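Two records follow; treat each independently.
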Amino acid sequence: KRLIGTGFIGGKSVGMLLAQAILRKTDPKWNDILEPQDSFYIGSEIFYTFLVINDCWWMRRHLSHPATFLEGVEATQQKILSGNFPDYIVEQFKSMLNYYGQSPIIVRSSSLQEDAYGNSFSGKYESVFLANQGQPEERLRNFLEAIKKVYASTIGKDALTYRKSRGLLDSDEQMAILVQRVSGSLYGDYFIPQAAGVGFSFNTFVWDKRIDPKAGLLRLVLGLGTRAVDRRDDDYTRILALNKPELRVEHSLDEISKNSQQRIDVLDLRINRFTTYPFRQLHKELVGFPIEKFAVHDEELIQRMADLNREVDFSWVLTFEHLLSKTNFTKDMAEMLAVLQNAYQCPVDIEFTVNFTDDDSYNINLLQCRPFQVKREIKSIKAPGEIPEENLILQTEGPIIGTSLAVTIDRIIYIEPKIYGQLPVRERHAIARIIGKLNQTQQKGEFKTLLMGPGRWGTSSPSLGIPVNFAEINNVTIICEMAEMHEGLIPDVSLGTHFFNNLVELEMLYFAIHPQKEGNILKRDFFRSHTNQLLSLVPDAEGYEETIKVIDINESDPMKSIVVNFNALTQKGYCYLIDKEISAL
C-alpha cells in the first residue's frame, strides 16, 4: 500500500525504518516517545522508466565515464526537468496525494548508495518541501516538479564529482523517493515542527575538557530542520554536548544572545511555499506556539531599557533551556544515539524533530539515520614545545574540529583578507574557481595542503567568505577560516551541516583563527616573503597573485619544512617552520 511502483526504496528510507525498528525492539518506551512515521516510497524502477521514456538514458550514461562525466550536465538536467511520467504512474501519485490531503509533505532523495557504510552522499541530492495547498491539479503539478528536481540532482556536478572521488562513477545509482508527512503543527499561517536538528553519537568538537566525545552532540533549531543541516551564514544554532548539555560555546550572556538563532524556516500556507522569516517578526504570528519551552527573556536587555525608561519590543532569546534542563530530552537523545551506534557497530548521524504533546511530554520523529564516517577517537598529541619567534607562522586557540593532527605540510594556500575584501562579487567567484583549479593539481593523500581564507569557506554569500563548492576543496588536508570578514565567526555555523559532514568524511581538519583575540597569532609577512607558486600551477590566474598566495616550501625554501600541530582536545594549534634535517628525524 505504501510502495508506488517497483524496485528498491533506497538507503535513506531503509535507514529511517531500520533505526525506528531497532529502538522499538530495544525498549517498549520508544513506542510512546517516537512519533509514528507516515511515509510513501516511490520505487527505483520508476526512475529508470522515467529516464527511458524521456530519452535521458544514454545522456545519463555518458555522464558515468570519467573522461566525460561533466560534459552536458546542464542539458541532461534540463531534459529531466521537462520530462513526463506515464499516466499509470501519475494516477498512483494522485491517490497518494489524496491520502495526504493538504497536509505539508517533503519529497526526499533515497538512492541505492545514499546513507551507506563508507559513502554518505551528505547533501549531494535534493529534498523538496511542499506546503501542498491549493487545488488537486496544482498540488499534483508541484509534486511532479519536486520529483524531477530530485531526479535531476543525481547528475548534479557536486554529486558526480563526489561519486568520481569515491570510485562510484560507473556503479549503478538508482534513485528512489521517500515522501514524508512533515512533522509539526499549524501555528497561525505557518506549519513547523516545534524544534528540529541533527545528532551525532560521536562529538568531533571538544571545546571544553569536561566534554566526552563518545557521549555525542546535538545541533538544535526552532522550526524546520533545514537550518540545522544546510549551511546558513547569516544565523546560528544551539550546539550541545550530550554529557554536558549546560556547557556553552559562548563565554558571556551577551554572546549567547548575539549567537542565538535569529531566523526561522517555515512552510507559509498563505503563499504555499517554504520560506524564512526573522524570529523577531514571527514570534507574534505563531498563534498557539509554546515559545516559553524554547526561549527565555533577555533580562539584561529588559533592565537596561528600564533604566532608560524605554519599553522593550522584543526580548526573547532562543536557548532551548526548558527543553534541555526541565525534561528528559537530552537523556533520551543520548540513549537513542548509543543504542543506534551499538546496533550499527559504528558512529551514527541522525535527523529528527521534537514536538511537545502535553506539559513536558514530547514526541521525537526520527527522520534519518546513517553511519557517521568518523574516526572514533580524538586523542591528545604532544605539544611542539617552545617555537622560536622567527619560525612561528600561526597559533590558534580554536575552535579546532576533527582528529588531532601533527604532520609536515607541503603547501599553504592563503587568501589575503584585505585584498579579497575589496573585490567585487564577480571576482570573488573567480577566486573560488581558481581555488578549484589549484585543488585539481593534487590528489588526496599525495600532497598535504593547508587552505586559509577570510570568513566562510563554501558560503553562498561572497560578502561573508569564499563561495567554493565542496568539490573545489576536497583534496585539502586542513581548512582554516580567518575571522576577518564575518564578526560572528563561530563553529556552530558549520557544525553538523552537510558541508561539515563532508569534511569529516574526508578526514579534513577544521580550525578557525581570530587574529585579534588573545592566544591567536598570524604572521602575515610569511606569506608575502615566500615565492608565490600560483601562476606556475594555474597560468590563467594572472592578475590574482596579490590575492592568492601559494607557498610550496620545497620550492621557496628547500632547507625548511612546515609543520602543523593541532590538538582537538586542548584546542591549541600551531603552524611553524623547522629545519628539514630535524623533520627527517
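The next record belongs to a different protein.
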Amino acid sequence: MLVAARLGASRLTPWASTSSQRCLASGAAGGTGADDRSQQKPEMFQLKHVQSRLEHTVPLMFRERLDYTFYRKDVIVDNQIINVQRQGIYEVMGHLSTFSVLGQVFFPHIEMTALNILPILDDGTVRLRWRIHYLSFLRALNLMNFKRDYRIKNLKWYDGYSVFHVDGNGMVYKFTIQRTMPDESSFNSGKTAAQRLAEKIGVLPGAAASFVKVEPPPERRSRRDYQYKD
C-alpha cells in the first residue's frame, strides 16, 4: 500500500506547475530562520504568482470570500480613500469584507473587474488597476434596467489603483487602495507646471496638454479687413 501511494504521488507530481511548487516552497520556508527571505526582493515567478491570484480573486470581491493565501499574517492595508490603515490578516479580512457587504446592501448590481495587472521586478511590486461597476437603487427603478444587456451597458463605474508589495518569500506584506493612479507626469521634466496642473484637473488629457497655439483659418476674416483692402 505504501509503495502504491508513493507511485501515485510520483505520477501526479509532473502535473503541478513549476511556479506553484516554487511559491509553495518559498512560503513554507518563510518561517525558518536560515531560509527566510522576507527582507529580500522577490523574483519574477513570485510576482507572476501574485498576478495570477489577483486575476482570479478580484472579480470575486462582491460575490464570495476572497483568496488570502498569498498574504502574510502581518500584512498591512493602507486605504488612502478613507485614510484608514489595518494590520494583520484578520483585520484586513474584516476590512475588505465590510466593503463587500456594504456594496451588496446599497447597490442592487455591483461587480469588480481588473483592468490591468502589472508585475514590476525593480521595486518588487504588483500594480493593479481595478474598476467597480454598480447600479444604484434609484436608477434600478428604470424598467429598462431589468434587461441585463441594457443594464450592463449603462452601469456607472468607480476606478481605483492598488500596489501590492511582495517580499522574497513571494508573500504580500503590504498593499494600498487609492482612488486614482499616481500622477507620474511630475517626473517628466519636459512638461511645465501649467501643463501638469491642466492634466491633473482634467482640463486637457495627458497626451494633448501641449498648449500649441493654433492659428485661425485664413477664411475667417472680419469685414473691416475687406473694407480696407485695395
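Discussion point: Residues 89-106 form the longest helix (18 residues). How would you locate this feature using only the C-alpha cell line?
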